[in-house]
Write a structure and sequence with these properties.
Shape: elongated
Radius of gyration: 18 Å
Strand content: 5-15%
Structural class: alpha+beta
Number of strands: 3
Distance between the termini: 25 Å
Strand order of the largest sheet: 1-3-2
Length: about 100
């Protein structure tokens, strides 16, 4: 049974720019320059969002010369996906059983 969905992670991913970044990083590792080009965000704004994603454990960094590449941590997304899958399964069971709390 699902105990909870990681609400802190949902808040982190709830920002449209951060969700766009995560989507881009799911496809390939990118440096800050690439992310600025892809998102249209200013470099300072993007750096602040990357800090939030790093602190939440969603992305990892890899120095490459003078550049910093970002990688999405798939296990974090898999955990969140699993939490939602459990929630969906529980909702399905509730619907099939016709469970409802009386007023």
């Amino acid at each position: 049974m699902l105990t909870s969905v990681d609400t802190d992670l949902l808040r982190v991913l709830g920002d449209p720019l951060r969700l766009q970044i995560v989507t881009l990083l799911a496809r390939e590792s990118l440096c800050t320059t690439h992310l600025v080009e892809e998102t249209g965000a200013r470099q300072t704004n993007l750096s602040n969002h990357m800090k939030v994603l790093r602190e939440a454990g969603v992305v990892e960094t890899e120095p490459c010369g003078r550049w910093m590449y970002y990688h999405l941590k798939p296990e974090v997304m898999a955990t969140l996906s699993g939490q939602f899958a459990e929630l969906a399964a529980e909702a399905q069971q509730t619907a099939e059983a016709g469970r409802k709390r009386p007023c």
